[in-house]
Amino acid sequence: MTENKKVKIEEGSVASEKSPSQAAAPAAKKTPRARKIFVLIVILLVVLLMAMIACGVYLYKEQQTLNTQNKRDISQLSAQLSVQQESQKQQLQKAQLLQSTLKTQFEEVTGQLQKVKNASKLYKTDVQALQRRFTETKVRQPNDWILSEVEYLVTLAGRKIWLERDIPTAITILLAADQRVVELSDSSLSVLRAALLEDINELEALPKRDPDGVVLALSSLEHRIDQLVAISGKAAGASAAKNSEVSSDINDWQENLTKSWSDFVNSFIVINKRETQLQAQLSPQQAWYLKEKLRNDLAKAEFAVYREQQDIYNIALHSALGLLKNYYDLDDNATSHFYKSVQRLSKHKISINYPDQLKSAPLLDRIIKQRIKKSLASSRAQQE
Q1: Residue 336 CB coordination number (10 Å)
Q2: Greatest distance between any 2 Cα atoms in the chain
Q3: Is 127's pLDDT higher than 90?
Q4: pLDDT value at residue 337
Q5: C-alpha distances in angstroms, 38 versus 29, 33, 48, 82, 202?
Q6: Burial class (CB in 10 A: 0-12, 13-18, 19+), 197
Q7: Which whole-number Å values give the CA distances from 148 to 152, 154, 290, 367, 372, in the listed order?
Q8: What does the alpha-carbon distance between residue 82 and residue 88 come to, in Å, rounded to a whole number?
Q9: CA–CA distance, 175 with 157 (Å, rounded to integer)
Q10: So where are the chain's domains?
Q11: How distant, in Å, are the alpha carbons of 16, 176, 294 from that of 26?
Q12: How far apart are CA 97 and CA 74, in angstroms?
């Protein structure tokens, strides 16, 4: 064993005694191999990078193709959706138009149905009225027909009063109705007779109207307007000048002296006394204004007569009287007569307070209904 240790020690020493070149030889052998490995790794990396780039380019192209296809599909879907929306819109418009048409037709049918119902009601009412009238004609007594005649006369009298303002004719008709009631000789109708006579007395108590006479009188005054004499500016001093004339009789020397002295004094101070209301005197060229104003007032009064407008009638004639009193000479005979005529006409009552209703009308209607009801009840009792 000692020998073996020596051999190893010798070998170790031998190995340590080798040159540095011999030690660097394995390292030199290892360097190309590492380079090859490195180049191989680089090549692999480049290949992988190229593969990745190619894969990325492929994926990009596929993505672009897919995007284009998606855009094309979206465009097609949008177009289809627009077409469907337009179609739905048209269908909605057609549905609305159809609904409106149906609604209009329904309203027309409803209106026609309502008209038919109303006509049916009217026909039913007419049939019932005819049946009732037929029944009434069967059960009515002769006295009932006379009462119907009296009712007609009372209605006719009311029309004469309120539509035609013909009081005398209305009184005559009511007298005829009273005579028909007398012919019935029915003591139960004494209340009706009393109402008829009260209506007759009330109408007879109304003031008598003569509208035609009043209008003719006013028209006659209109034709006489041109004959009126207006007050001139010299009319006030005419009477004074006439009274101041000196008499030619010697026996009137005292009176003449007084008049002369008065004329002498009056020549210094002149005082004119006027008792009527002072109005501006119109020139002869403006006299037509007064005449036309008078004609207008009289025409208003004429229209008011037929319309029974008492206030307008009074105002028009009062205005005419004022014009005559202030602007015309009432000492003239024609003018004075004209003034008195207008004054007399202004006192006429052209409107009448007519009764609102004849007292006999509702009483007669109640009597007729009671008699018909009684006759119907007796007829039904006999049939049973």
Answers
A1: 15
A2: 231
A3: no
A4: 92
A5: 15, 9, 15, 63, 149
A6: middle
A7: 6, 10, 60, 10, 11
A8: 10
A9: 10
A10: 139-207+369-378, 210-230+281-352
A11: 16, 171, 162
A12: 34
215 Ramachandran zone, left/alpha/beta (phi>0; psi -120 to 50): alpha
- Measure CA of the first residue to CA of the last residue in the chain; give whole Å: 171
Distance in angstroms (rounded) separating the CA atoms of residues 239 and 261: 18
368 residue type, one letter: I
| Separation between Cα atoms, residue 350 and residue 209, nearest integer Å | 7
- Is there a contact between 214 and 350 (Cβ–Cβ < 8 Å)? yes
In the numeric block, the tokens 């000196």 are attached to 246
74's torsion region: left (phi>0), alpha (psi -120 to 50) or beta? alpha
Mean predicted lDDT score pLDDT of the chain: 77
Q: Is the sign of the CA dihedral 56, 58, 61, 63 positive or negative?
A: negative
What 8-state DSSP symbol labels residue 269? -
Place of tokens 């289809």: 80
User: 179-214: per-residue pLDDT in tens?
Assistant: 988 888 888 888 988 999 999 998 888 877 778 888
- Structure tokens given for 146: 């006379």
Q: What is the torsional sign of CA 285, 286, 290, 296?
A: positive
The alpha helices in the chain, defined as continuous H runs, are 2-16, 20-139, 142-162, 167-184, 190-204, 211-223, 235-243, 253-266, 287-307, 310-327, 333-345, 360-383
Q: By the 8 A CB rule, do 294 and 320 touch?
A: yes
Angle, helix 360-383 to helix 20-139, in steps of 10 degrees = 90
**For 104-125, what is the mean pLDDT?**
81
In eight-state DSSP terms, residue 235 is H
Counted residue by residue, the chain has a size of: 384
140 Ramachandran zone, left/alpha/beta (phi>0; psi -120 to 50): beta
